[in-house]
Amino acid sequence: MKTMSVQAPRGVVMIRPHHFHPNPETESDNAFQSRDATRTAERIAAQAHAEVTQVAQRLQDAGVSVHMFEDEGRQTPDSVFPNNWFSTHAGGHVALYPMFSPSRRRERRGDIIEMLKHQYRVQDVIDYSGLEQDNVFLEGTGAMVLDHIERVAYAAKSNRTNEVALERFCTHFNFEPIVFDAADAAGRRIYHTNVLMCIGTGFAMVGLSSITDPARRAEIAQRLCDNGRELVDLSHEQVAEFAGNAIELAGRDGPVLALSHRAWASLTPSQQAVIERFAHVLALEVPTIELAGGSVRCMLAGIHLTPRPRNAL
């Protein structure tokens, strides 16, 4: 196991939904969404609630700090994915993002930002959400996969990722933007970068075949390997199983890779062996949450902030 790095947060924010359901507003450009006619809406909501509860417990058991917030509203069906509307950064910085779907704009919560200010050292909050009025969107660490070590922001073009907003973020937070086109096996544009790419400290998982331009594909593979990372190349089929939707966290005994059981099962034994050299794997059961087109990484908003001393006011 490698020592921890700035890539892996020690804490996360999670939202436990009480009325979860796949969002019809986001269905048109999220090919990862699906429906389940075999369960009632009430059953789906109850099982989503239970899955979030179990994920939080598994993370806490591994030594990851979990800040759980409840969402009892019916008008925020995607609230379980908080990483899209805010992100945190070393040095005490927080960003708020412009969201593509009107229903998702209601997910932003002042109580979460106040918790961060109270329990962590927050220097400033940079709010990009006003860009929604200009139909300019950048859905946080769904739209961007951030390499905190090399200071690179990888971003697949989509309705959820505007290059002007990306440039603005990169200027403020000192990242180099690398933008590319990405599509699934059927040629449909991939809606969020974090379903095809996960960057850890010693490894990276990426659906290279999803990157449509061969030159860009080769460049990205090289950049990810430049600092000695091992590359796990994900097939279209593995991306469709949410294998790229994973996140490295700092656990009690070292790095932890959190992803869904479905995602982990899609990997080959040799791919699993690479990952296990660098992190303890937490394969989590979230089949109901995955109906909404996101998986474990989307459920976790990483906290890259410095905790305040426990006795601080």
Description:
It is a single chain. The protein is of the alpha/beta class. The chain is built from ten helices and 15 strands. Helix content is 27%, strand content 23%. The model has no long low-confidence stretch (mean pLDDT 93). The protein is globular.
| Biggest sheet record | 3 strands, mixed
H/E series: EHEEEHHEHEEHEEEHEHEEHHEHE
Q: Give the helix tally.
A: 10
Q: How many beta-strand segments?
A: 15
Provide the fold topology.
Layout: E1 11-17, H1 41-61, E2 65-71, E3 86-89, E4 93-96, H2 102-105, H3 110-119, E5 124-127, H4 140-143, E6 144-147, E7 152-156, H5 163-173, E8 176-180, E9 197-199, E10 203-206, H6 214-225, E11 230-233, H7 236-240, E12 247-251, E13 254-260, H8 261-266, H9 269-276, E14 280-284, H10 296-299, E15 301-303
Tell me briefly what this model is.
This protein has 313 residues and is an alpha/beta fold. Helix content is 27%, strand content 23%.
Give a quick set of tags describing it.
313 residues
